[in-house]
Amino acid sequence: GAGVSQSPSNKVTEKGKDVELRCDPISGHTALYWYRQSLGQGLEFLIYFQGNSAPDKSGLPSDRFSAERTGGSVSTLTIQRTQQEDSAVYLCASSLRSTSRLSGANVLTFGAGSRLTVL
Amino acid sequence: DAKTTQPPSMDCAEGRAANLPCNHSTISGNEYVYWYRQIHSQGPQYIIHGLKNNETNEMASLIITEDRKSSTLILPHATLRDTAVYYCIVRYRDDKIIFGKGTRLHILP
Questions:
Q1: Which residues touch B3 (CB under 8 Å, ≥6 apart)?
Q2: DSSP A62
Q3: Separation CA A27–CA B17 (nearest Å)
Q4: CA distance A118 to chain B (A)
Q5: Which residue of A has its CA nearest to B103?
Q6: pLDDT tens digits for A99-112?
Q7: Tens digits of per-residue pLDDT, A55-70?
Q8: DSSP per residue over B74-98, as a string?
Q9: Which of A58, A87, A94, B59 is most buried, by the most CB atoms less than 10 A from its CB?
């Protein structure tokens, strides 16, 4: 597609339920990032993928959070046993890995986000 | 932690140039400086990036000091639509990218 697509755009769930958030990056983009943004706060890094591998999972808040990426394309962020503090906008971004070892420039393109509300 | 420091907020009169500063004193030689902005309830939008030289595009100009320890984003003729949070980040290739709190820019009519 032309941009990064995220679904659902809005999700309301009850405390204790599991949720899955999906990110469809720009075709050909090898790097994929997940961020979380609580109301009035900045972007909190969660995880990033290079292809299907996640070199850095250090931002995942707890073991209730997991993410996977298959086929170097679509990624799913799963939150198990949701809590009210999980309520936030979850943002996904993708970028094209530079093919030149001399070039470090990669521009992130963000999706519109998935707004999660846990009641 | 973010590798950059920005003022939490700034005001600018409509039609004037908005100059947003960013300190990145620990930047390494191969790290680029990027600027993004986030308009309320939308995903961040790329503005501009640079390595050593000053850069200009249709949205803004980026001035990087000679020692690369700081930079300034310039919006030449600010409009109300430029009201947003502006993020300055440094990164190399596909490193983990940390966004700081950014600068909330208010454009005053």
A1: B24, B26, B27, B31, B89, B90, B98
A2: S
A3: 37
A4: 18
A5: A42
A6: 544 455 678 899 99
A7: 888 899 999 999 999 8
A8: EETT--GGG-EEEEEEEE-TT----
A9: A94
Asked if A13 and A118 touch (Cβ cutoff 8 Å), the reply is yes
Task: Give A11 to chain B, closest Cα distance, Å.
Answer: 15
- Cα distance from A1 to chain B (closest Cα, Å)? 17
Dihedral of alpha carbons A67, A115, B89, B98, sign: negative
Give phi and psi for A57, each to the nearest 5: -110, 15
Query: A95 to chain B: which residues are within 8 Å by CB?
Result: 94
d(CA A22, CA A20): 7
DSSP state, residue A84: G
Of B42, B49, B99, the CB nearest to A43: B99
CA distance B23 to B89: 10
CB distance B47 to B85 below 8 Å = no
Q: Which of A39, A17, A8, A12 is nearest to A83 (CA)?
A: A17
First vs last C-alpha separation in chain B: 35
Per-residue pLDDT of chain B (109 residues; tens, 9 = 90+): 568 999 999 999 999 999 999 999 988 888 889 999 999 878 999 999 999 989 999 999 999 999 999 999 999 999 999 999 999 998 866 577 888 889 999 999 9
The kind and range of the H/E element at A119 are none
What is the spatial distance between Cα B108 and Cα B32, in angstroms, rounded to a whole number?
Answer: 31
